[in-house]
Amino acid sequence: MLIQLLRTQLRPYRTWLTLVVALQFLSTLAMLFLPHINAKIIDQGVARGDVGYIWSMGGVMLAVSLGQILCSVIAVWFSARTSMGFGRDVRRQVFHRVGSFSSREIAQFGAPSLITRGTNDVQQVQMLVLMGLTMLVSAPIMMAGGIIMAMREELGLSWLLAITVPALLVTVGFIISRMVPGFKVMQVRIDTVNRILREQVTGIRVVRAFVREPEEKARFAAANEDLTVVARSTGRWMGTMFPTVMLIMNVSIVGVYWFGGHRIDSGEMQIGSLTAFMSYLMQILMSVMMATFMLVQVPRAAVCAERISEVLDTDASVRPPVAPVTLEDPRGMVTFDGVGFAYPGAGDPVLTDISFTALPGQTTAFVGSTGAGKSTLVDLVPRLYDATAGAVRVDGVDVRDLDPEALWSLIGIVPQKSFLFSGTVRSNLQVGKGDATDEEMWAALRVAQGEDFVRALPEGLDAPVAQGGSNFSGGQRQRLAIARALVRKPKIVVFDDSFSALDVATDARLRRALPEVTSESTVLLVAQRVSSILDADQIVVLDDGRIVGVGTHHSLLEECPTYQEIVRSQLTEEEVA
Amino acid sequence: MSTTANKPAGQMKQTERVVMGGGPGRGGPFGGGQVGQKASDFKPSLKRLLRRMAPDRARIAGVVLLGVVSVAFSVIAPKILGHATDLIFQGLFGNRLGAEHATKEQAVEAARAAGDGTFADMLSKLDVVPGVGVDFGAVGSVLLIVLAVYVASALAGWLQGWFVTDVVQRTVSDLREEVEQKLHRLPLGYFDRQPRGELLSRVTNDIDNLSQSLQQTLAQLLTSILTVVGVLGMMFWISPLLAVISLAAVPLTMIISKQVMGRSQGLFVEQWRRTGALNAQIEETFSGHALVRVYGRLPEAEERFAEQNEALFKASFGAQFVSGLIMPLMMFVGNLNYVIVAVVGGLKVASGSMSLGDVQAFIQYSRQFTQPLTQVASMANLLQSGVASAERVFELLDAEEESEEPAATGGPGVTRGAVRFEDVAFSYDEDRPLIEDLSLDVQPGQTVAIVGPTGAGKTTLVNLILRFYELNGGRITLDGVDIAGMQRRELRDRIGMVLQDTWLFEGTIRDNIAYGRPSATEEEILEAAKATFVDRFVHSLPEGYDTVISGDGGSVSAGERQLITIARAFLSDPALLILDEATSSVDTRTELLLQHAMAALRSDRTSFVIAHRLSTIRDADLILVMEDGRIVEQGSHVHLLEADGAYAALYRSQFESAVDAA
To answer: Where in the numbering of this chain does the ABC transporter domain appear (chain A) (predicted)?
Structure first.
């Protein structure tokens, strides 16, 4: 997954990638060249007392250093550009893909998970690319180059490499193999500790009311101890890493001296090569270390890449029609014709065989217990989901044959959770209608019973709205969401349990004012309170995804046992009768 | 459990958190991979943090001592190794000269005669015996010493790492424990005032960050500083001239890192700002996905996203590029140093004023020199972020606590449940009085229904009975005893509570019910479950009472969660009961069960019910109608209807239409 994601996403950056590799190669070559020149200075300059040679070779070294930094800097420039560009591209694609999703895919992933995938996960992979381009690219070059140079410098000692490099790999690998499971356990335990703290903070009233502080303390202390134990052992392994690596390096240096000394004595080797060989050995070992550390990051990034790919590989289940039908003079009549809906893979369908017609100028209400499928039902109208059986029609045309934009322009929807966008009251109402005038906005607010509190705000329509609308009360948010739907003067209005946060008096006033703007619209109303639907022209009673009754309050009270049960649970027996 | 308040941490599933890894603490090898919040008061906070390590004084002394030993050994080793170079070098010359000259003096003479003065100078300084090759006995013993020194250094390093881990983990563990205990001593008002996400972030993210930065910096900072000092000392010992030249690299390094870091810090701030803005937009668009689509705002959202995304790209490119420069630049300084040492050292060896072994050793030192310098700089950054976190945790620890508890009074012997409010005054905020002059008399066994609009003070009233908040005036008595004089636990032991917010912890259904009374037997738990209809739905769960309730609900519906909280209160068998009736989104069947369960719970107990259901209100012995923190009416249903006041109006608006229609 990781490799595939990188391959497809990095394709546009091929030229830059090649440049980075080339530049890193040059830079590494320069790094490798320095000890070689140094060896020459010793062998041909120092050992012969040739000062001129020392100076001229010093000049060469300086030039090589300058060339090296030049290559490095340009490489960093291209690496940063490539990796950040990669991140930008992936983020854009995730955003675009999620935008095309229907509510089904959103529900399947969960909005919070999609947010993490689009932000954090991309960030992780992007950093891996950056580090890969700077470290992972240069490590093998450094290693191969180091080995070649070392062997060129002194073939007779190269067997030392054959011992030290694997020794380092094995040791570092062993320590890491000890650390990684530790880190995993640690993360789980950190989560547990944090979960308990979160529970304590959110449930502080319950903890105190039941006087369970001692138990909570004990519960936390145990979790904390568990965490500390594993953190300590992992930390100790981590602490072993550096001294161990240094020890291996240092022991190999001693080896170079001992065996190199003998070769120098027998005239097979020059003394300058000793220094050079040592430098190469160091560089090789460093590159092994770098590569190992890098590779530790890979599994984490691989998980992220997989989660990103999941999003990018998911196709939207709701797609616009190839040849959309246009409605000439839309009136907003909604017809359900044998509609069924089931989540893919789920056993029981959410909706089965739903048929009814909601007429313009009338209110059609939906009641039923939670999980009866009320919200899903109304979501089928704007194609947030597509029916899996039968058809949903608007003015007789299957919604799947309509241009989505045109369909949506007919609908005003007030969701269960009154979600506001950050911005201003004005910008939120303009979500409903982009070119709404102030008069239109005030009119919508008046009907939604929001005029008074918006007028009371010092900035009026331009009052700021924080993210999620957190600076407004639940009731105010709900009224703004209603106004947002009304301002577009929709042919079809969907209220999904939209009056729950309103107090009774406001609820009543709002329902009295509604006909002002909805007299010609089809109103679809999902409700919990029986009192909110008494005046509905048509009430559809749902139970377990099926229609068990259609009629008015009075007719249903006589004929529909489920409706009677619902009414009875909310009013007392004698009041029902 | 409500997780809406703590957006980033709370909403993420656990698997996602694992992937995300540990918060803001990871600096990464690029230095400045994070901005690091700056501590506003760095020094006092750092001191306070260090003071917390005082119990580990012995270990800390060990850490320092071992650090010194480890660094000293690793620093001294190249110098000893230099002797080996010299021995080999001399042996080499011995071999070379042996063929032509009998003694060293002859060889020097010969060189001078040949006009090679420099060579002669160098040679004269060498301890060369012509004809004698490398003395491998001497070389061997030098190398053995070096080996021993390196091993000792590694051992000291291991031990040091061990101790540091222990100290850090103990300190952090204690801090966590202390924070948790503090939570239980904070007044409830503190939790009201602090945004929940912010508080949670302090007790989780900040402590995690602190732990990581301490673990990463403490040992390394010490080692790095010691290494710089030690290496510098050795360099001066070998050659003051070369040392001074190398030292010139220090200000150069400082200037470069300061420049680069200062610049990248700004760019990183910009990057995180842009990231935050983009994340906010992503979060908003994804959360409001259905709305964005239906209202046709997707093209606009994409356009805005593209802009923000491009801005983030520019900012992060800048940040990564500039911070990525630090490594090559440092390497360049190192190389520059290397070149100078190689040339000047070569010249000095050639002139005989320095031995080749020393140059050799010096090169090794100068390589060791720049690296820790860079490390110190990035460690300092990391430490700063850690201390900033510590500061935020300390702020929590310093928050004012609940008032002291009186010694156990025993309270009233057997609780009958008579509650009196006498001229009670209370406000959350001094400037805005909420409850004033509130008096109330409730007989044992009575059911009190509290009705009124949102914000009227209904919840506050019942919170005062639990002594979640302290009164500003007046007093509340339970069976004639002032509750302010009782220990909180004495008081709360007698009270059961069911809140609208159904708080359950992650654990089995059994454990959650038993939370009401941990000493309860299995039979008692079952009995409570049966009485409150929990038993009925538990039977349909495959794992029964062992079903684990997870944070996001899962197998248990909202109504069923509420039933469990009722069972919990039932099990605790309180004399006094506080109920906040839930009305939201519970299906009709569960709703009926809930009503019955609540009724079962209320029988024979004094109960305060924040009531929404008509049946509860009508059957209550006493109805309190609250408005703006005052009780505007009290009495029975019939009585209040006759009075034709606020209650009558409320009743009519809420229920009458339904009743008429029926």
So the answer is: 334-569
Q: Within 10 Å of residue B41's Cβ, how many Cβ atoms?
A: 13
The CATH number of whichever domain residue B493 belongs to comes to: 3.40.50.300
Residue of A187, A370, A381 to mutate for B, most B C-beta atoms under 10 A: A370
Query: What is the pLDDT averaged over residues B228-240?
Result: 87
First and final C-alpha spacing in chain A: 65
B356, B86 contact by CB (below 8 A): yes
B585 touches chain A (CB under 8 A): yes
Identify the pLDDT of residue A575.
45
| Tens digit of each residue's pLDDT (9 = 90 or more) over B613-649 | 667 788 888 998 887 777 888 888 888 888 888 888 7
Closest partner CB to B302 (pick from A99, A211, A557):
A99
Is residue A321 situated within a structural domain? no
Cβ within 8 Å, pair A261-B356: no
| CA atoms of B100 and B104, how far apart (whole Å) | 11
Closest CA to A508 of B659, B652, B450, B640: B652
Cβ distance of B158 and A243 shorter than 8 Å: yes
The beta-carbon neighbor of B506 closest among A195, A405, A557 is A195
d(CA B321, CA A76): 6
Q: Which two tokens stand for residue A99?
A: 């935008």
> What average pLDDT is seen over chain B?
78
Residue B382 lies in a domain: yes
Cα–Cα distance list, A77 to A10, A19, A408, A487, B321 (Å): 16, 11, 46, 51, 6
Dihedral of the CA atoms A158, A162, A167, A172 (nearest 10)? 90
Residue B630 is part of which domain span? 426-634
> Does residue A262 form part of some domain?
no
Asked whether the beta carbons of residue B346 and residue A42 sit closer than 8 angstroms, the reply is: yes
**Residue B504 near residue B1, CB atoms below 8 Å:** yes
Q: Do both B131 and B266 map to the same domain?
A: yes
In this prediction, residue B586 has a pLDDT band, given cuts at 50, 70 and 90, of low
Verify that B299 and B245 share a domain, yes or no.
Answer: yes
pLDDT for A410-455, tens place per residue? 999 888 777 888 889 998 898 888 888 999 999 999 999 988 888 8
**Backbone phi, psi, residue B486, to 5°:** -95, 160
Could you tell me if B382 and B434 are in contact, meaning their C-beta atoms sit under 8 angstroms apart? no
Is residue A400 domain-resident?
Answer: yes
What is the band of B19 on the pLDDT scale with cuts at 50, 70, 90? very low
Q: Is pLDDT larger for residue B220 or for residue B556? A: B220
Which pLDDT band holds residue B22 (cuts at 50, 70, 90)?
very low
Residue B35 has pLDDT above 50, yes or no: no
Residues B158, B294 within the same domain = yes
Same domain flag for A486 and A526: yes
Q: Using an 8 Å Cβ cutoff, are B608 and B596 in contact? A: no
Give the Cβ contact number of residue A31 at 10 Å: 24
Residues in chain A predicted with pLDDT less than 70, given as ranges, are 296, 345-347, 369-372, 468, 501, 503-504, 569-577
Classified as helix, coil or strand, B624 is strand
Rounded CA separation B101/B30 (Å): 58
Structural domain harbouring A340 = 334-576
Residues B556 and B601 in one domain: yes
Q: Give the pLDDT score at B377.
A: 67
Q: Measured between beta carbons, which residues in chain B are less than 8 angstroms from residue A552?
A: none
* Tally of structural domains, chain A: 2
Contact across the interface for A208 and B468, Cβ inside 8 Å? yes
Contacts for B180 with CB less than 8 Å, ≥ 6 apart = A197, A200, A216, A217, A220, A224, B203
Contact A55 B188 (CB under 8 A): no
Contacts of B75 by beta carbon, 8 Å cutoff, 6+ apart: B227, B230, B231, B233, B234, B365, B368
